[in-house]
Write a structure and sequence with these properties.
Sufe protein. Chain: A, 42% helix, globular, binds zinc ion
Length: 149
């Protein structure tokens, strides 16, 4: 399986799955969402601290899952600090397109572009997109639960 996915497991993904950034529960978060991907068994909880202008001040996550879901959550938390709700939604659309069809503007996507290879492995698309579903759900309410099914 590792050979088959070698394209995917680039250095960035391995690094973020082994030592995920912002990997902790956030006391004082005002938005949270639980995400579950039953196909793979990934479970993550996403924590957001949003200000009165709907700008993300802080973001963290905890949970257990495969390397792809963990790395995706880690890179997401690194990418979203300081972004507005609208900016996050636009980024979600781009990430979703990237992991489903492989198209990306790597300059704009920065490190998130490492997930472009995921589109070749349909079973992994849900792993990569799970934290994004969770962040969108969290922004919409105070306590949310989402599943990729
Ligand atoms: Zn997974």
């Amino acid at each position: 399986m590792f050979d088959e996915l070698s394209d995917l497991y680039q250095e960035v993904i391995l690094d973020h799955s082994r030592s995920p950034r912002n990997f902790h529960k956030m006391e004082g978060a005002n938005h949270t969402a639980k995400g579950h991907n039953p196909l793979c068994g990934d479970e993550i909880t996403l924590y957001l601290l949003m200000d009165e202008n709907d700008v993300i001040q802080d973001v963290s996550f905890e949970g257990a899952g495969c390397a792809i879901s963990k790395a995706s959550a880690s890179l997401l938390t690194s990418a979203l600090k300081g972004k507005s709700k609208q900016e996050v939604k636009e980024l979600f659309d781009k990430v979703h397109a990237m992991v489903t069809n492989g198209e990306t503007d790597s300059e704009e996507m920065g490190k998130l572009a490492v997930f472009a290879g995921v589109h070749k492995f349909p079973a992994r698309v849900k792993c990569a997109i799970l934290p994004w579903h969770a962040v969108i759900a969290a922004m919409e309410g105070e306590k949310q639960e989402v599943t990729t099914e």
